[in-house]
């Protein structure tokens, strides 16, 4: 059996001398990717709804495409870890 791939702590919101928000280290990467997938799917769904309104700006449409591409990257990373761990989809 292969060992589990874990996350590394990574600050992503710096204010002043330290990190206000940080991704936790030591979590299973698959679980972190599943959480990212859930959040990005919610963002994509919300933006898709927003784009159905006539008042929607071109900027919102571009943000939708960026979020959708980020979601595709997360799907790809998750599939890569599954393949490395010998897990079939």
Describe the protein.
With about 90 residues, the chain is α+β, with helices and mostly antiparallel strands. It has a domain of about 55 residues. Helices cover about 55% and strands about 15% of the residues. A hairpin with a 2-residue loop joins β1 and β2. It is flat.
| Strands ordered across the widest β-sheet | 1-2
Gyration radius, in Å: 16 Å
Beta fraction: 5-15%
Unreliable stretches (pLDDT < 50, length at least 5) are none
Contiguous helical run count: 2
Helix content: 55-70%
Average residue-wise pLDDT:
89
The biggest sheet amounts to: 2 strands, antiparallel
Class based on secondary structure composition and strand pairing? alpha+beta
* Terminal-residue CA separation: 18 Å
Order of helices and strands: EEHH
Principal-axis shape equals flat
Number of E strands:
2
In short:
By secondary structure, the chain is α+β, with helices and mostly antiparallel strands. Helices cover 57% and strands 13% of the residues.
List keywords for this structure.
single chain; 89 residues; alpha+beta; 2 helices; flat
SSE layout and pairing:
Elements: E1 10-15, E2 18-23, H1 29-51, H2 58-85
Antiparallel strand pairs: 1-2
Helix pairs in contact: 1-2
């Amino acid at each position: 059996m292969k060992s589990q791939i874990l996350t590394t702590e990574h600050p992503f919101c710096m204010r002043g001398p330290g990190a206000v928000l940080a991704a936790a280290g030591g979590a299973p990467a698959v679980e972190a990717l599943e959480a990212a997938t859930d959040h990005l799917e919610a963002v994509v769904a919300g933006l898709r709804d927003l784009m159905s309104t006539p008042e929607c700006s071109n900027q919102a449409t571009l943000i939708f495409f960026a979020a959708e591409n980020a979601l595709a990257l997360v799907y790809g990373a998750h599939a890569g870890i599954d393949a490395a761990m010998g897990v079939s989809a």
